[in-house]
Amino acid sequence: MSTIVDLRSDTVTRPTAAMRDAMFNAPLGDDVFGDDPSVNALQERIAALLGKEAALFMPTGTQSNLAALMSHCQRGDEYLVGQMAHTYRWEGGGAAVLGSIQPQPIAHQADGSLALADIEAAIKPDDAHFAITRLLCLENTFGGQPLAMAYLRDATALARRRGLATHLDGARVFNAAVVQAEANGSDPYAEARAIADLFDSVSVCFSKGLGAPVGSALVGSKALIARAKRVRKMAGGGMRQAGLLAAAASHALDHHVVRLRDDHANARRLADGLAGIDGLTFTPPASNILFVDLAPALVHARTAAKWGGEHDSLVDQLRSRGVLCTGLYKLRFVTHLDVDAAGVDRAIAEIRRAVGASH
Ligand SMILES: *Cc1c(COP(=O)(O)O)cnc(C)c1O
User: Where does the record place the modification N6-(pyridoxal phosphate)lysine (predicted)?
Assistant: First the structure.
């Protein structure tokens, strides 16, 4: 039994036994020649599930987003994106570096959305001074925050009205779908389809909450996916007997979507357990991610350690006690398939101890 409670990201360290069986038994071919049956089955499945013509299995979400951006945009085009969005801030600037696509970042509202007026104002006139605004890219969930369907409808309608294409970074789109399904008493797969219907392309990660070791998919029109396939090749993502990995993703789609609600419940359990501790503030998690702000004294302890001070940082203290989290901007705790209620309770106890909470 592992004593580590790993809340750094929603990735599992070891696929479930059932998933490993599915991988082990997967029929394989050579996907570079398009004849790996397990890859083809996954691509057909995820395209149908999200209501698109075609899909492409990708090694990572980063490559999937890059291929999408480079398929929608040409060199010198511009895409509108959130200031803290993954494609803009956490993917090494790939769209600009590799695609010569200029990002136009837009500040987020408190709910994670980009204000419609800000989107409208960022669209450049047709004038030689400006890059050509080509694409609106949204992210759902955004840092664990599901964007409202009404907002997604309005933002994508605005984009279409202004002639822009739309891409969704849906690394966690099934988390958003599960939250919507709980609120509406509906089916999570139908909710995912309803979200995807609003966008020209969607990138979805199997290696996040869905618990596969590797893999993402890009879905969209046949023409878009054909372009994306060339970008994937250029980026070195054309894999051979990739059915071994695709089988894990198919297993995840069958077995790990509905259970995301357990991750969401565990994130709420963590928040409940940290409520009322001096120096910690947060808003209750809407899905599987809890961000915690630290009071200045605790932040000082954290940064002092980063710069070689004598205090252990909170993140390091927790790590030494077997609780892993990240703390770049805020403390971040992510629940997933490998973390159960007992793990959450252990994390709560260690966090209380680390911040010196007496109750
Ligand atoms: C993790 C993540 C990605 C990228 O996925 P990788 O497989 O790690 O490259 C993209 N977007 C969001 C929102 C993510 O959380």
Answer: 208
250 close to ligand 1 (CB < 6 Angstrom): no
Q: What is the pLDDT along the chain (359 residues), one digit of tens a residue?
A: 458 999 999 988 889 999 999 999 999 999 999 999 999 999 999 999 999 999 999 999 999 999 999 999 999 999 999 999 999 999 999 999 999 999 999 999 999 999 999 999 999 999 999 999 999 999 999 999 999 999 999 999 999 999 999 999 999 999 999 999 999 999 999 999 999 999 999 999 999 999 999 999 999 999 999 999 999 999 999 999 999 999 999 999 999 999 999 999 999 999 999 999 988 999 999 999 999 998 877 766 655 555 554 445 788 889 999 999 988 778 999 999 999 999 999 999 999 998 876 55
CA distances from 107 to 49, 73, 112, 185, 269 (A): 32, 22, 9, 33, 30
- Ligand 1 pocket test: pick from 89, 205, 287 the residue with the most ligand atoms within 8 Å of its Cβ: 205
Cβ of residue 143 lying under 6 Å from some atom of ligand 1: no
Domains of the chain, each with CATH number or no CATH: 17-255 (3.40.640.10), 259-354 (3.90.1150.10)
Distance CA 94, CA 113 (A): 23
Cα of 205 from ligand 1 centre, angstroms: 7
Stated pTM of the model: 0.95
Q: State if residue 86 touches ligand 1 by the CB under 6 angstroms criterion.
A: yes
Going from the Cα of 62 to the center of ligand 1, the distance in angstroms, rounded, reads: 6
CA distance 293 to 276: 13
5, 324 in Cβ contact below 8 A?
yes
Both structure tokens of 260: 């995301």
- Residue whose CA is closest, atom 3 of ligand 1? 61
